[in-house]
């Protein structure tokens, strides 16, 4: 690889500032490998919507398709009615670029404070479906505002969509030490979708005899994340359940401020998109206090995805070293003070 | 009240044994108040299904309607295909008796070990909708077993259903110290249902100026349950989100083995049903090791509901005293050993 042609969507709130730190890291690891980083910024989010009424045009999508990867900060602003930017911009990106794997690793770095009393070792990955389920926008309402209003939301699940995701989860499990896949669903209530998911895990699982599997209802999964998170290795689940457990997973590993994610099109038919799990946090935007670790950690996933495994490991090591430094400072009674640029400086200096 | 005409459904797994301890407690507190307790057992669950193929007949439902209240142990057994007992028995009970309020208090008793490092004070109630949402059984599948399979699940939300629940939540908040209602939903994705829920909370909230309100997406709610559970007072939410957060809430307050619940028909048009949040735990059934506290705590809700507030407080005090005793034993390095009958004996002896 001689060039990485990157689309950058800073987005709303703290998005642009954490993305800038992620870019500094990318510039450095790629620069030292003589890889040209081309950055093209896309003005998407609340500002653009207020100015033009546009969220994401067909022309935007066409332009984004021409990149090797997309780096996204965060989308969402209280000045825009709920659902508009989420559905017409963020979810539209995931759906139109067919990001069917939403990959969300959860790692508790040594010494990082967890709200759990005995977190034990936490190192699992959630493989969340990204293009189906209750996120299809398949719902409606009649007699709105009257006492006879009815509002529906439809979860759509296809064999095509579930299979390709489940296969990805098993392939991923094969690369990991514990080789264990947990399906999270609610098949005792959502019997039709549940049946499809279970059957698919059984069928595809049979092709991977080295991988052990188990099943948890979503309600039980939220319990085990708190009482026994070390039991998880690879979790495979639908769009909504994945949304829910990855936030809880972020919380037990020190906060969503540390959690990275990748929206993958594993077939490479369109560029994949890398973003922190956290939102735009408009209350602290522009104050240089947002933790950019989640954004920087998202570049690890990005670098792996574009075939720069060594650069990815360099960044991962720098993050780990940085988190160890934070833990040591806390242990010494002199807690590290997070500033967005300061964390960027520190990670760069370790690199 | 001279008589309490109770229907008893022990059900599956540990259901019958924990229910027996709850009944001993009821017999004692009612006996000492010269109230006759009439217990009628209903054979419902896996055994009946295997024997007769029946889950819950119209005749069963008619008979159950004639009681003042229903005490339920647990439903569910691995020998019955997933979904049958859950949907045709447990959910059918909730739906046909119009148990639209599923009330689930979460209290962390002093000294009870929580998986959280700093649980702080936890004392909130989840008001979960019980007769709509994704629990309607409104879904289906086509081309099952082929690569073209499509499975859907539909969440149905009505103004009628949401309003009566939200009103209940505000009335409940008025009886509590903090008078605070949190709506949990996902209105940035489930826009139609979300809009209905939000509007309803706004409209009904306006009638309760003393009650403060806020809103959390379900994913954020799972975070705050772990990082700041003391922020919650009354949570109002739909059927599925309520299922998920009450299990997580059980986990942070010492386990679902302690968590009680009530399926209420607040209008009194049909009897309400009281059950532990935990399931049938078939792996430990019949071994006298299941903690009956959740079942006993469900009688507190039952006694309140049938107008026996004093008896309810007696049982609540006995549970609290018992939990303090456990905490002291643990602190003294001699942890209390839970046996189903032993806990029953101990609670009775405090009563
Ligand atoms: C903003 C929202 C639409 C989004 C989601 O629900 O997927 C977010 O919560 C996430 O997890 O990336
Ligand atoms: C057994 C199952 C159908 C039930 C539910 O989902 O409501 C249970 O999890 C509960 O919370 O009471």
UniProtKB/TrEMBL annotation, chains A, B:
It is found in: Cytoplasm. Substrate binds at residues 94, 104, 128, 219. Residues 5-347 form the Isopropylmalate dehydrogenase-like domain. The record marks 135, 186 as: Important for catalysis. Its cofactor is Mn(2+); Mg(2+). Catalyzes the oxidation of 3-carboxy-2-hydroxy-4-methylpentanoate (3-isopropylmalate) to 3-carboxy-4-methyl-2-oxopentanoate. The product decarboxylates to 4-methyl-2 oxopentanoate. NCBIfam families: PRK03437.1 (NF002898). This is 3-isopropylmalate dehydrogenase. It comes from Bowdeniella nasicola. The lineage of its organism: Bacteria, Bacillati, Actinomycetota, Actinomycetes, Actinomycetales.
